[in-house]
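@channel anyone free to eyeball this complex?
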Amino acid sequence: MATIEAIVSVVLVLLVGGTAPPDSVVGNRGGEAQRSYYAAVFLNRGHVSGGVVSNIGLFRRSPGDTAWSNIYRRNLFTFGLGLWKSGSTTRQYIAAGNGLHRSVDGRKTWRVLTDWHTEEVLSVALDPVDSAVIYIATPFGVFRSTDDGARWQKKMSGMNSWFVRKVMVDWSDRSALFAGAEDDLYRTTDKGEHWTPLHVGVPGMEAVVQHPADPKHLLVGTSDDGVRVSVDGGKSWKEGKGLPNTAFYAVCVSSDKQTIYAGGYQTGLWKSNDRGFSWSLLWQDSEIEAIYTIFVHPDVPRHLMVGTSGQGIYESRDGGKTWSKFGLNGCHVKQIELYP
Amino acid sequence: MKQVTFVLFLILAVCAGAYAQIVNRETYLKEFEKRVAFVTSVYDTLQTPGYYQIAVRYTHNKEIAVADRMFKELLRDPRGDMFWMIPSIGAYLVGKDKMSAETKAVVRNAWKTYAPYRGDTENHWCMYYSALFLAAEQFPNLPGSEWYNGKSSDENRQEAKEYLIHWMKITTTIGQGEFDSPDYFPEYAMPMILLSHFAEDPEMKTRGTMMTDFLFADFAVEHLEGQYIGGYSRIYQPAVYKPLLSPASAFAYLYFGTGEPTNSGWIVLPALSTYRLPEVIYNIAVDRSKTYIHKERKRVRNVIRFGSEKNPPVYKYSYVTKDYGIGSLQGGILQPIQQHTWGVRYLYGRPYTTIFGLHPYWSGWEVGMFFPEEVKTLIADVVASKGTYNNPDKWTGGSPFERTFQHKNTLIVLYDIKPGTTTEHIDGFFPRNLEERIVDPSGWIICKAGDTYVGWYPLQEHEWKEELETPSNSLNDIGRPQLERVKEMGNWRLRSYKLQNGYVIEVRSKDEIGSFDRFKSELRSHVPKATLTPGSVSVRYGTLGGDKMNFAFPEKRTLNGKEIDLSKTRLFDGPFLNAAVGSEKLTITYKTKKLILDFKAVKVIE
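replying in thread with the prediction:
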């Protein structure tokens, strides 16, 4: 267990638009030359469990690379990534179809932390201070480990459905978490012991975002009803105006904290400059079936990427005006990150 | 020479007639060994590298160097996840005392460097954890750095054991999830047989044997000359209409001596194992001297959303005679994608030995119930591996708008389909090789399949489509062309576009009713009365057997005035198999013989 005090340099990346780290954390990320892009590839439609075609797992694209390389398990259905960093200690996590994987040695070796009790791990959330505390979202609820992944306990008290797509630590209070479930968004203030529904008003939480500048500003992408916004910590919710009533899998706050992006099933990419209350279409490409994830470069807010279903990654370096393919064609890309 | 032997064997097998003869234990075991020799006969000369080729060479003590070379070659780039784990650990276990030290080291290294995926279904987990358990026993006391998943030998063995015991417990208390699958039977039988033969842990060895017995007993009681009968959790095309193509039929050949001789790879490792089918199960599989009703309770695959219960019950009813079996599940979505809700299977007219119907339904809601991916993109994901899923002409799949009511050899199926649903029609499968398919003025469609007679009374207007099986339309669910047998006859499709719909099925054998003419005559005087309006779909019917069946969609079933309560269905209930829900104890009975599989005590009582 590594409990870190004082200045915590945590890069906590929890699926699409996960908990935003404090400013100082972003500043600690280092220069472009030391970082690579990582992509969680969930599926390539040519791949089936037990099949011979394998083109999924964890991919990396380093500066100077012209293509992505699979760096971990070409047969791993990968839902998401997480990174915990403090000083020289780095722990990388992969939320995958067969459990939560962790590497503590710079991705040289990995261990599957979960066992047969958990099925797919759909997202991972990490305590920003205590690396031994880990949360995972699964189709059968939220699980928590307080001993560095050795043992897991299901934490569902207060929840009315068991399918949880996202779990996310409140960046303003590490005892508090959000869980995006089948029926509602839930919040706990005691590390998952008890959950309270936030009554979003529509079901199917697909994306959960807490604004990095305002912990009470929440946004959820839903499975059928666009994006919903709350600016009072979930006490009241409003519909994002202008969006189609369909699934929004990705919501992301720009690194300059001014713009919010959203995308989903046959939606194209949308943007809002008024905290998510109204939206306009930024870009649409008929080739793209769905946007699963949105990435905004932490230092260059005009540099965007989207991970799609079956069309890999698209990139824009001009704030979304023009786009080009950025590799992994054929893949479902669930998360894109820039890691040291 | 081997080809000549094979042809002679085939001729002998075919000449033996349609029925398997019950033989005594001594003869059974002798014939079993002959089948083992036949199954394995081609594998020790095949030059293409493969785990079965390797396993047979080691077992036959033949060309050990070739087996070693093949093993090393295959392990240069392992593929296949749990479908790699089972054959590779099987080949290792049969050959570990014969292979070279170098080959052993290569095998060991594969379990360190190749990371098989655990998968997302019950059969995946069963194979994965069985193979992992056996591998962890074979490579003990190693730290996590020596295993693909970072866990030590002890951790892997313990986790695998825990899962397998959990799976056995749930299967013997509320039923198997991927139950009675003609296509997925091997994925359970193979790992259990390997445990039975090779587990060093005495408990797991016993459990492996007991679970193999359990699976075979479950198959035997719904078996007819190599065919699995009744409703199934999962089946592929084209096996759904050519039943003997299913891998379970290969097991029927090896263990029951029925169906068609085959060298199927699915039965190679079982053939090399020490597992022997208990006599009582063999007898149940082949003795069709008496007609019987068998009922079962299974469970729905894990429901992850859009439901309030993780594993709702499945109720299965089968009626079995020496000529045919008719069986059904209660209807609704019980399994994703490949459910087979009901069917008649009979002896006549191979390979098309079945008549069945369905509502060819698909939806994001259905697959979203069982798979965690985003619902709106999930259909395309599923279609990538199960190519027929969103095909309106498909022959597999359940529907939330379909329900059944079976009593003996009479079945009522009703549909109340919501407008806009995929699809807005129902289909019936009728083989073209039927001797008779009479569209009678009474409304009955009357079929003759040898000594099996099937009556189908459509409750709504319908049309017929003739469909020859050609390479272009004979793709199976995973897109592989079925190039063999494409010259065969194909089928007739009965299609009805009415949303409130249904049919009544009556099946009789010649022995049961005397003649086809009498069957026709009886049907003409038994016409169902139906109400078919949206939200109110029901039928009243007096069966050929003199019973009164009233069925109102979706769940009101009344037999001779008494309401049927399916929730009282036992885990197994029939003349041969009996078990209470939650009991973990299966009693297998044949005449005076009895075998009790007590999973709580991990004990077999004879």
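from a first look: Residues 292-357+394-569 of chain B form one domain.
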